[in-house]
Structure formats: structure tokens, C-alpha cells
Write a structure and sequence with these properties.
Blueprint: H1 2-49, E1 56-61, E2 64-68, H2 74-98, E3 111-115, H3 121-134, E4 144-149, E5 158-159, E6 174-181, E7 187-188, E8 191-193, E9 216-218, E10 225-229, E11 244-245, E12 248-250, E13 253-261, H4 285-290, H5 293-296, H6 298-302, E14 303-304, E15 307-308
Antiparallel strand pairs: 1-2, 2-10, 3-4, 4-13, 5-11, 6-10, 6-13, 7-12, 8-9, 8-11, 14-15
Catalytic activity: L-prolyl-[collagen] + 2-oxoglutarate + O2 = trans-4-hydroxy-L-prolyl-[collagen] + succinate + CO2
Subcellular location: Endoplasmic reticulum membrane
Keywords: Dioxygenase, Iron, Membrane, Metal-binding, Oxidoreductase, Signal, Signal-anchor, Transmembrane, Transmembrane helix
């Protein structure tokens, strides 16, 4: 009888043992799955810092201009916009609280915020990707600038404010500029290069704005990026890299700008020196600059150590 009673007891012990083993096996599987997810997440982060040169197209040699399609993902583009909007809203709230006159995001001619290289993980990833593309150290770059343009809030072409004066304390000359489009503009908002040798060879139809006829133009497409070198290979200034933005006619334009210098850029130094003598000596300077005279006639337009240029302001020399 005792042996008959021990049989169910033995079966019960075996059943419990199998249940414990199954539970242990389930826990092990869950742990392995979590570890696998973590490895995949880290792998994605590592891959996202890498740059794929197959996506790059050379647009021009004068200036040296390159387009990378899909440089940022939609999520990365949206993340930068969200960061900019958050900083703009905080700045607006501070100004309102202090009683200062302020404009909201929609009413500004352009709204601009700066993001430090290590602002967050995604910004840091993008910075590493830029360094991989340009082969230039992150330390040579200024803070990333995020700009926003609304419909018809620019009265004229907004040109890059490039100061050609050599300033070693700021890392020397700017060697390259990265323009990253964070949104696709329905109409207008093109980036133009008025001194490009290709400006008269580019065929444009009704999909381009009238402003785009002023130079070689690139349409803003979300995630795409432009790399333009501001110096020739012999380290002299390349005035054909001078560029501007056409006004937005439909939609809105978000763009990230990264400016890179030949040496380490000191972030805590003021970048722009405002001087009262930064003027044009002729009323036609802006027109001359738009048709490329800064490049064709730099001595007269920009000047030399012995001669004060006639159109230093329009040529972006100050």
C-alpha cells in the first residue's frame, strides 16, 4: 500500500520539477531577449553615426558643392525641429515675463537657435556623422544653428553672412559649411549660389521660384544635406561658395547649419565683430555682388591691405 501511495507523490514531485524548469527556461529566454534588444539598440546607434558615401552626388566643382540624400532620417529631422521649437518657446516666455518686446515663431523673419555639439545623444550622433563626411574634426565646428522661415517673411534673398577676415582666435577661416534641410518646402525657399559657374546652365521650370534664377539653386528636401567648401584646395577664399536663401512662397523651411573652421573653434568667443565702418561705398554694390563681381573683381569689391574695398558689406567681408 505504501508503495502505491508513493507513486502519486512521485508524479507530483516530477510535475513541480518540470514547472520550475519551464519557469526558469522562460526567465532565461526573457533575459536573452532583453540583452538582444539592448545589443540591437546599441548597434543601431553605432550604425547611425556612420556615413554612407554612396548617397553623395557632386553638384559642382566651382564651388565644390556636394549633395547627400537622406543624410538625416525623418525622426532626426523632427527631433532637431522639436528642440528648436522648445528653446524658442522658452526664450519667448522669458521675454514676455520680463516685459521685453518679442515675436513668436510665426512672426519672426527667421528664428534661430544654437545647439551645442553634445546637446543630447541625437545631436552628438549627427555631429559625428558630419565629421565622417567632411573628414574634419568636430572641435573645428561652431554650434549647430537651426533656422526657421515662414511664407513670405523675407523681403529679399537672405545671404550667408560670411566674414572673410582671418581671425585665428575663432579657428581661422571657415573651411566648409553644411546645410541640412529639416523640411520639404512646397514652393520657394531654394538655396542659391549666385557666383556658381553653373548658374546659367541649370534648367528651371515653373516648379522653381523666380528667385532661383539668380544662381545655381537647390530645392529643400527633408533629410537632404549640402556640403560646400568655402576655401579652394590651396586654402584661398572661394567666393563662388557664397550662397543665400530664397523666400518661402508655400510651406515652411527648417534648416540646420553647421560651419566648420580650419582649426579648433573656441565656442565662448564672440563670433561677429560689429563695426561702424562696414559699409558699401556704392549704391549698386548689392547688384554687383549678386552677379558675381565679388569673385570676378575682388580687389575693387573686397579690397586689399592697402585698399579699402568698395563693396565689403555686400560681399560679406564684414
Amino acid at each position: 500500500m505504501a508503495s502505491l501511495l508513493s507513486i502519486p507523490l512521485l508524479l507530483l514531485i516530477l510535475a513541480n520539477s518540470q514547472q520550475i524548469c519551464s519557469t526558469s527556461r522562460f526567465v532565461d529566454l526573457e533575459t536573452k531577449r532583453e540583452k538582444l534588444d539592448l545589443v540591437q539598440e546599441k548597434s543601431h546607434i553605432i550604425k547611425s553615426t556612420q556615413f554612407n558615401p554612396a548617397k553623395v552626388t557632386q553638384l559642382s566643382w566651382h564651388p565644390r558643392l556636394f549633395l547627400c540624400e537622406g543624410f538625416l532620417s525623418d525622426k532626426e529631422s523632427d527631433h532637431l525641429i522639436a528642440l528648436a521649437q522648445n528653446k524658442l518657446q522658452k526664450a519667448s516666455a522669458i521675454n514676455i515675463g520680463s516685459g521685453k518686446n518679442t515675436h513668436d515663431l510665426q512672426n519672426n523673419t527667421n528664428s534661430c537657435v544654437s545647439l551645442a555639439r553634445d546637446f543630447d545623444e541625437i545631436v552628438s550622433i549627427i555631429e559625428k556623422r558630419i565629421a565622417a563626411w567632411t573628414f574634419l574634426p568636430k572641435e573645428n565646428g561652431e554650434d549647430m544653428q537651426i533656422l526657421h522661415y515662414d511664407v513670405n517673411n523675407m523681403d529679399a534673398i537672405q545671404y550667408d553672412n560670411y566674414n572673410a577676415t582671418f581671425r585665428p582666435v575663432y579657428g581661422g577661416h571657415r573651411i566648409a559649411t553644411i546645410l541640412i534641410f529639416l523640411s520639404t518646402v512646397t514652393h520657394g525657399g531654394e538655396t542659391i549660389f549666385p557666383m556658381s559657374v553653373l548658374k546659367d546652365t541649370q534648367i528651371k521650370d515653373s516648379r522653381w521660384s523666380d528667385c532661383a534664377a539668380n544662381g545655381y539653386a537647390v530645392k529643400p528636401v527633408k533629410g537632404d544635406a549640402l556640403l560646400v567648401f568655402n576655401l579652394h584646395p590651396n586654402a584661398t577664399l572661394d567666393f563662388s561658395s557664397f550662397h543665400g536663401d530664397c523666400k518661402v512662397l508655400e510651406g515652411e523651411k527648417w534648416i540646420a547649419i553647421k560651419q566648420i573652421h580650419v582649426k579648433t573653434f573656441v565656442q565662448n568667443q564672440p563670433l561677429i565683430e560689429f563695426k561702424d565702418d562696414c559699409t558699401d561705398e556704392d549704391d549698386s554694390c548689392s547688384q554687383w555682388a549678386a552677379i558675381g563681381e565679388c569673385q570676378r573683381n575682388p580687389v575693387y569689391m573686397l579690397g586689399t591691405p592697402d585698399y579699402y574695398g568698395t563693396c565689403r558689406k555686400s560681399c560679406g567681408a564684414c
